[in-house]
């Protein structure tokens, strides 16, 4: 393969030798096709990317020019021009390619001249004139040769231009990603992940398209001038009439192009919107299902989609008109030219007719297709370049090289308070601007990291920072690669870190150990595991200063303590570290405590100083409930403090390690991410039928087919009539002279009215049928896209949650963006194009055969070779195409995961490594793209070669049969054969394209047929006021997430009495979250669950889920107004909403927003802190006023005050409800009525807390002891207190005994 690399780094002198060697035969591709024919191609079969196509090299080259331009522009006080940079970078090699275009277009003009001379021989046919015959053979050879040369130059040109396009695209992507890594937080607010992904997926693709047509901007006019000259010689001034029509057609086409790009940009905005909504739906699908909110969301998506489709429909009609006018153009031109010619009193002859027809068709393509395309693509590219430029000019974060000053202006909405901290003997006076909605602690860290620019004050950081974020971030890859994060592996250190971060045991449980693959956004890990991996990553780095943002909140008390002692005060004991925490029991170990409240520093000092100074802080410690607004504490410790922590562990504020991805813990069976299905083999006819039937019913389809044939017939008849007319005229010319000699009246003339009339009629028919079929087809195909999207979306909404656990978000979104995009725009156009061309090819062959019947004999082997070639090529090409789309996915998922972990990546200074990974992914994609380019050229060259053979046979065939053919039919056959040239290979390529695009249809259809969960509503509707009491009974319930998955709840029997508050505890993986999943039927449980005596599995899912409220573990907000977030169905009045907000103390926050309730939240509510989002979820529950409330360890990232607020609200607002709390902080549930202790999916114990604590071997007792001595005493005390204050009901709980079946369970229990 080396030879190819050498040839490809071409210098301009070796250009021609290269062309002849490399492109015409592409011999080096043959082995690849052989492999592809035998088996499916894999990534390893692809050729390595050429050094000059490497992402990094191209990107850096363009980047340096761009940086230069930005600096220069700043000097000249103007905005930088990206277009200028692009031109500067690529104009040289691109300009050279213009030579090819020139050669190609010159030949196109000369060929009709040869053709005319050849036809003239037949007109003046004289069997005895041998000289004329030899000359005619010369002309035939000329026609054949020019066909061959055309075949070669055309593909050479195309290959190299597309490669230039690829280089531009790759370089831009590199720059976009590089930019994304250094966006400032202000800039992040101005753009969204969806938008950046869209830049990478859609906008840069314009470069691939624009390079193809650009040269025609200057070749077009030149060629038109040449043709005009030749036509003048041939038919005199009449040619001006035809040219006038062409000139009129050009601006109309350009206008179409303009309109089209206008629609395009509107559509793009709507598409962005739809994909963003989809992104939220897919990410928040669990919540949407539990809230039974599918309907408002589907309404939302359908609305956006409807707008989008109406725009797409309009642009499709434009396209249809464009295509039809393109087909009709030549007909109109020839018609007008000859009408004028005949009316001026000239007689027509075959050679004139067909030279004219050929010349027009030569120039027509350039003028009506390439030239306008160039204009259209240029304007589209300018829009894209502008979008990219806007992105590239966003603010960047100021790189603080530690030890340097760092100053940058922040947007004005910021309050600035005074905050002084002495830290590591460096006096840091910091004015920390805090956006009103963030934890001040996190803001402090972010300003230290340099993420939060500050106005005044000086922030000096000396030394390397490392950072563990509050919301743990993992990127796709192995666990080991997540911890090492680019550092070398030192086994001892690595083991030490794993032990300190309590990951040792987890690694043993996972099948592949630390080489287990983490799915998208860490799907395979639980929340606690993610948090620990996140911490381990920070610890493993050898840095000087450690910033830890609440790393202990996502783990339970025991693990939290382990992390604090072994890791934070263990491994790191000699390093300065700043720990943000809500867990006051750790404060004694700190050397210095900062208490922050709303961005102010309230107090500072050591633990004992603060206790002495009598800040409210101590009351905080005594009992969290009585404490004032407990601000989080910023603690920091330098030297190890050996002091037993357990004396003063007030509240173990942590979450059990269970995460939202509940159940995935029990599925550590290999990487859970399922391989993306890459369907193999050909596309069946069935799929086409499905596709078309989605768009229209059978009758319409039959009508469409008829129209297609009618249009084609009219098309050929029109040309045939001209030939017939010319033939009649010639007979007349030959015989007419005889009439005069006999002295009879004047020469006979053909009846002009008759011939012209029929000619005009046929032209009209061609026009009408042509336009009708085009528009109708587009209508059908766009409707098909619409109905398939709706079906796919509905099926996604109805599929069980499990589907989203095993399919990464990117894959589902890919179906909605890339594949639906294909169905909307590309597929209808290609499909229509293919059908029209296919009919035309059949027409050409039919015409040729009618003139020289035995041309069918050599056609047979040609057709056989062709069919073989097509199968051979498609086998490989389809794989190449598929590889191209599968190698594209990593580029996107890498981008979106990088955007999520932006702070971490920057704190670790890992930008360069991520950039390199991105470049590697890009190069992989370039390999497949390059293959795609070369393979398609390999095929096209061979096809055009076959066409050249066909033209040669026709030309020489006519000469050999010179006695039997008329000049008119020769002209018809030859001028048609010549048009086969580009058309045939284009048609075949389009047919392959259609098949390739049908894979998108196939993927969409695959998602329309997902298994769906139980129906949302069934015949059996529960009574409207159900559940009035809120009694939940589990009767022998077993539960697993999938049919083949492990059973996570085993044969569970339990009963939750009305109005009872039940805490559910258990170690990680005990099945706490699974209990909720079973209750909500996120997967169908076995056994029976009754609520107020109604069997839940019999009623519809919406009926069930709307009657239970849940406060989820991960608070999810959706983009949209605050009102939509609280009440998507608009069921409540404003008053209700405000009251709910008042109850969760968010009223003031919402009132401060610019449009209050109507304020549109940023992407996924990121302008609220985690605690506030949690409160919004609580407000939703308050609004729903259901009898049953489930709380899923919602207090993971919430400071004590918010937590207390939530607890208080729950106690007051939900006094009348049955409340199940999945707990991780025992103090929240110690005063529950009963506690359910789960262990490995079974009930270990279920009783009042006090009673459970009497059993000293029980799990619950042990859990209480683990919380620390002081805490344990307090817990025992509260349990006892609660026990004594309760009035003992009789065994059959209150009047419920009346309901017979429940008593049975009571006794059974």
UniProtKB/TrEMBL annotation:
Task: List cofactor names only.
Answer: Mg(2+)
- SMART domains of this UniProt entry? AAA
Q: Where is each ABC transmembrane type-1 domain found?
A: 95-379, 702-996
Q: Where is this region: Disordered?
A: 622-672
Describe its membrane topology: Multi-pass membrane protein
Q: Its Gene Ontology biological processes?
A: lipid transport
Among its keywords, does the record have Endoplasmic reticulum?
A: yes
Q: Which reaction does it catalyse?
A: ATP + H2O + closed Cl(-) channel = ADP + phosphate + open Cl(-) channel; urate(in) + ATP + H2O = urate(out) + ADP + phosphate + H(+); 17beta-estradiol 17-O-(beta-D-glucuronate)(in) + ATP + H2O = 17beta-estradiol 17-O-(beta-D-glucuronate)(out) + ADP + phosphate + H(+); hydrogencarbonate(in) = hydrogencarbonate(out)
Keyword terms, alphabetized: ATP-binding, Cell membrane, Chloride, Chloride channel, Endoplasmic reticulum, Endosome, Glycoprotein, Ion channel, Ion transport, Isomerase, Lipid transport, Membrane, Nucleotide-binding, Phosphoprotein, Repeat, Translocase, Transmembrane, Transmembrane helix, Transport
Q: What is its EC number?
A: 5.6.1.6, 7.6.2.2, 7.6.2.3
- PROSITE patterns assigned: ABC_TM1F, ABC_TRANSPORTER_1, ABC_TRANSPORTER_2
Q: Which GO terms describe its cellular component?
A: apical plasma membrane; basolateral plasma membrane; chloride channel complex; early endosome membrane; endoplasmic reticulum membrane; recycling endosome membrane
GO molecular function list: ABC-type glutathione S-conjugate transporter activity; ABC-type xenobiotic transporter activity; ATP binding; ATP hydrolysis activity; intracellularly ATP-gated chloride channel activity
What Pfam families has UniProt attached to this entry?
ABC_membrane (PF00664), ABC_tran (PF00005)
Protein's UniProt name: Cystic fibrosis transmembrane conductance regulator
- The UniProt gene name for this protein comes to ABCC4
């Amino acid at each position: 393969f080396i030879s190819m690399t050498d040839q490809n780094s071409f210098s301009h002198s070796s250009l021609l030798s290269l062309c002849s060697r490399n492109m015409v035969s592409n011999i080096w591709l043959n082995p690849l096709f052989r492999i592809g024919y035998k088996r499916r191609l894999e990534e390893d079969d692809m050729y390595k990317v050429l050094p000059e196509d490497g992402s990094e090299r191209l990107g850096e080259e363009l980047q340096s020019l761009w940086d230069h331009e930005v600096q220069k522009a700043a000097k000249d006080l103007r905005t930088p021009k990206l277009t200028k940079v692009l031109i500067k970078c690529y104009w040289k090699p691109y300009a050279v390619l213009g030579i090819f275009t020139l050669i190609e277009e010159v030949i196109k003009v000369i060929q009709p001249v040869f053709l005319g001379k050849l036809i003239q021989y037949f007109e003046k046919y004289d069997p005895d004139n041998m000289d004329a015959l030899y000359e005619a053979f010369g002309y035939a050879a000329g026609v054949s040769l020019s066909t061959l040369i055309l075949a070669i130059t055309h593909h050479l040109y195309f290959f190299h231009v597309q490669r230039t396009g690829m280089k531009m695209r790759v370089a831009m992507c590199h720059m976009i990603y590089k930019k994304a890594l250094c966006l400032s937080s202000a800039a992040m607010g101005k753009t969204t992940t969806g938008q950046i992904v869209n830049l990478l997926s859609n906008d840069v693709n314009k470069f691939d398209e624009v390079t193809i047509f650009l040269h025609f901007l200057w070749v077009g006019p030149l060629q038109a001038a040449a043709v005009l000259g030749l036509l003048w010689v041939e038919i005199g001034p009449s040619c001006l009439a035809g040219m006038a029509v062409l000139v009129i057609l050009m601006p109309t086409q350009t206008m179409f192009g303009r309109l089209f790009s206008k629609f395009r940009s509107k559509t793009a905005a709507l598409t962005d919107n739809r994909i963003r909504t989809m992104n939220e739906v897919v990410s928040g699908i669990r919540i949407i299902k539990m809230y039974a909110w599918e309907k408002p969301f589907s309404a939302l998506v359908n609305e956006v989609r409807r707008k989008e489709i109406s725009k797409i429909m309009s642009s499709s009609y434009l396209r249809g008109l464009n295509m039809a006018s393109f087909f009709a153009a030549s007909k109109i031109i020839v018609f007008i030219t000859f009408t004028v010619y005949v009316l001026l009193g000239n007689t027509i002859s075959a050679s004139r007719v067909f030279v004219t027809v050929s010349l027009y068709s030569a120039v027509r393509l350039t003028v009506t297709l390439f030239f306008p395309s160039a204009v259209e693509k240029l304007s589209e590219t300018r829009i894209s370049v502008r979008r990219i430029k806007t992105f590239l000019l966003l603010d960047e974060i100021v790189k603080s090289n530690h030890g340097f000053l760092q100053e940058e202006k922040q947007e004005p909405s910021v309050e600035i308070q005074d905050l002084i901290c002495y830290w590591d003997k460096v006096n840091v006076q910091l004015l920390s601007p805090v956006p009103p909605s963030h934890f001040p602690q996190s803001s402090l860290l972010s300003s230290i990291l340099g993420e939060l620019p500050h106005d005044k004050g000086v922030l000096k950081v000396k030394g390397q920072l490392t950072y563990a974020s509050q919301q743990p971030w993992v990127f796709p890859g192995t666990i080991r690669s997540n911890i090492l994060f680019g550092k070398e592996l030192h086994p001892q250190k690595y083991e030490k870190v794993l032990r300190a971060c309590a990951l040792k045991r987890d690694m043993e449980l996972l099948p592949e150990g630390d080489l287990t693959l983490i799915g998208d956004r860490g799907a395979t890990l639980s929340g606690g595991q993610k948090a620990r991996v996140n911490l381990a990553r920070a610890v493993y780095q050898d840095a000087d200063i450690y910033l830890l943002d609440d790393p202990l909140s996502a783990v339970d008390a025991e693990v939290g303590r382990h992390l604090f002692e072994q890791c934070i005060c263990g491994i790191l004991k000699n390093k300065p570290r700043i720990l943000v925490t809500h867990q006051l029991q750790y404060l004694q170990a700190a050397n210095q405590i900062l208490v922050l409240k709303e961005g102010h520093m309230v107090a500072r000092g050591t633990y004992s100083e603060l206790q002495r100074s009598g800040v409210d802080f101590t009351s905080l410690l005594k009992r969290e409930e009585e404490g004032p607004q407990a601000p989080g504490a910023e603690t920091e410790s330098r030297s190890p403090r050996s002091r037993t922590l357990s004396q003063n562990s007030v509240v173990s504020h942590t979450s059990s390690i269970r995460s939202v991805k509940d159940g995935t813990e029990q599925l550590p069976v290999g990487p859970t991410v399922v391989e993306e299905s890459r369907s193999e083999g050909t596309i069946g006819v069935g799929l086409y039928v499905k596709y078309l039937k989605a768009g229209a019913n059978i009758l319409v389809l039959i009508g469409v087919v008829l129209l297609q044939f009618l249009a084609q017939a009219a098309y050929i008849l029109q040309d045939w009539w001209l030939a017939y007319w010319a033939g009649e005229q010639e007979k007349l010319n030959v015989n007419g002279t005889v009439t005069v000699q006999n002295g009879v009246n004047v020469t006979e003339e053909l009846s002009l009215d008759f011939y012209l009339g029929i000619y005009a009629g046929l032209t009209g028919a061609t026009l009408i049928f042509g336009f009708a079929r085009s528009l109708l087809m587009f209508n059908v195909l766009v409707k098909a896209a619409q109905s398939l999207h709706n079906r796919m979306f509905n099926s996604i909404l109805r599929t069980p949650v499990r589907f989203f656990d095993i399919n990464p978000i990117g894959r589902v979104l890919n179906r909605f963006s890339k594949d639906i995009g294909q169905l909307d725009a590309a597929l209808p156009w290609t499909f229509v194009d293919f059908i029209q061309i296919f009919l035309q090819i059949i027409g050409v062959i039919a015409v040729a055969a009618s003139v020289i019947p035995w041309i069918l004999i050599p056609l047979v082997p040609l057709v056989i070779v062709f069919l073989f070639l097509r199968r051979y090529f498609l086998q490989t090409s389809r794989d190449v195409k598929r590889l191209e789309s599968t190698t594209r996915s990593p580029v996107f998922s890498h981008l979106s995961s990088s955007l999520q972990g932006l702070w971490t990546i920057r704190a670790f200074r890992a930008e360069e490594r991520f950039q390199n990974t991105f470049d590697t992914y890009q190069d992989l994609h370039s390999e497949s793209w390059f293959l795609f380019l070369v393979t398609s050229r390999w095929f096209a060259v061979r096809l055009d070669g076959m066409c050249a053979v066909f033209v040669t046979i026709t030309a020489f065939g006519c000469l050999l049969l010179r006695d039997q053919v008329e000049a008119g039919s020769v002209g018809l056959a030859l001028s048609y054969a010549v048009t086969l040239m580009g058309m045939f290979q284009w048609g075949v390529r389009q047919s392959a394209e259609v098949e390739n695009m049908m894979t998108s249809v196939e993927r969409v259809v695959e998602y329309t047929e997902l298994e769906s969960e139980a129906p949302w509503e069934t015949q059996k509707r529960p009574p409207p006021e159900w559940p009035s009491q809120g009694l939940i009974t589990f009767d022998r319930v077993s539960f697993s997430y999938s049919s083949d998955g492990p059973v996570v709840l085993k044969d569970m029997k339990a009963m939750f009495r009305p109005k009872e508050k039940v805490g559910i505890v258990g170690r990680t993986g005990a099945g706490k979250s699974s209990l909720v999943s079973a209750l909500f039927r996120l997967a169908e449980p076995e056994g029976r669950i009754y609520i107020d005596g109604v069997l839940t599995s019999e009623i519809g899912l919406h009926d069930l889920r709307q009657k239970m409220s849940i406060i989820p573990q991960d608070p999810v907000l959706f983009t949209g107004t605050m009102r939509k977030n609280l009440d998507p169905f608009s069921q409540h009045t404003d008053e209700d909403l405000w009251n709910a907000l008042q109850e969760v103390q968010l009223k003031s926050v919402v009132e401060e927003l610019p449009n209050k309730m109507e304020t549109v939240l940023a992407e996924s509510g990121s302008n609220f802190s985690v605690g506030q989002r949690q409160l919004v979820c609580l407000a939703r529950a308050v609004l729903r006023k259901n009898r049953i409330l489930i709380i899923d360890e919602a207090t993971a990232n919430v400071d004590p005050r918010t937590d207390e607020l939530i607890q208080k609200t729950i106690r007051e607002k939900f006094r009348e409800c049955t409340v199940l709390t999945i707990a991780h902080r025992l103090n929240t549930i110690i005063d529950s009525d009963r506690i359910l202790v789960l262990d490995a999916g079974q009930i270990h114990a279920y009783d009042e807390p006090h009673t459970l604590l009497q059993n000293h071997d029980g799990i619950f007792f042990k859990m209480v002891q683990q919380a620390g001595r002081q805490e344990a005493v307090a817990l025992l005390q509260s349990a006892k207190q609660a026990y004594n204050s309760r009035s003992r009901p009789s065994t059959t709980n209150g009047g419920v005994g009346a309901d017979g079946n429940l008593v049975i369970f009571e006794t059974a229990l």
